[in-house]
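Worked example 2:
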Amino acid sequence: MLTNADAAARARAVIPGGVNSPVRAFGSVGGTPLSIVSARGPHVTDVTGREYVDLVASWGPALLGHAHPEVVAAVSDAASRGLSFGASTPGETDLAELVVDRLNVEGIAGIEKLRLVSTGTEATMTAIRIARGATGRDIVIKFAGHYHGHSDGLLAESGSGVATLGLPGSAGVPAGIAALTLVLPYNDRDAVREAFAVHSGRIAAIITEAAGANAGVLVPDAGFNRFLADTVRAEGALLILDEVLTGFRVGAAGWWGLEQVAGEGWVPDLVTFGKVIGGGMPLAGIGGRAALLDLLAPLGPVYQAGTLSGNPLAVAAGLATLRLADAEVYRRVDAAASVVSMALGEALTAEGVSHVVSHAGSLFSVAFRDGAVRDYSDARDQDAWRYPAFFHAMLDAGVSLPPSVFEAWFLTAAHDDAALGRVLDALPAAARAAAAATPA
């Protein structure tokens, strides 16, 4: 029988590190990475045939659960008509209309137009290009610990896999490009004000995760996103809200929608989407005011293109997922996340393990420290060495967690009582493993 170790060894012979995305290598938790052959509902199954309750959810897209029958049927139907046309399709317009409609919260238009691409990296890269084209400025502000894909200039002090690997950025990024990115501490208003004072008239945009979810969960302070929107408007710059993870995952209109419902009353200039918008297929998008989106070719001077942009199979998956993602789906996801996160905290407390569980809607993460996690410095200031033991105890019990402490946990609408029960049953032993762990 093929084992995960066999699969990993075979992959390493022809794929760098044996993986096509670094976090999959289990570098920060050790051990042999899983090789998954199928998934359904709240479960994934590896090459040995073992089934796990999945709390990764493909890093967010599986909002409804894996292989939802209606999503699979939509993709199958689309595939029967052809895999790619290199031409426009009605489905692209259907998806753009649906996204624009969902971002119209209580009469406030979050976006007016949408350009589809294939990856979140393409979406954020294009949004920055639009901002620079619109303002005639070059400098971009990002926040330490926020991850916006792997394009040059945005990897400095990133979260996600960069945090997992302990890297400050990436080799191969020219110093001149990196110098155009100002990296500031998250939730620090004074740092933002100082940056605009020092670089007056040179900053094109601030790019920020709507709620940080790539260095563990980093929640914006109350009013912080609105402060950013007000600041860029006063300074002639733009605000790019990265909702690749939170968009349509934490609510029908993403994190921005939650803030509007809470009465924050601000609108981003550009918004990037990924993950849920494609229902598990490679799809992402850039939305914003029509005047900004119309700067893109063929109407304007900002170039962006992609042979597979708006791929009909990905569009079909996204349409089916968003049409099914109603209020009841979000209620179930929120409820499941609440059950697991509460039990997680209780299990660690029972074992006397210092920890904090941070929440951004249904997204949550654990940090092994005392005190809240407000920025990347806080996220790194923890006993991260406890997580590998915790992770493997859960894996041994049949629960698959994100293989890094610097990642959010994802629940789905398919996590029923049986799946949640398996997670809750596994937590006490995992907490004991974390308590018994020692620094390497």
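The radius of gyration is 21 Å. The domain at 4-64+326-436 is CATH 3.90.1150.10 (Aspartate Aminotransferase, domain 1).
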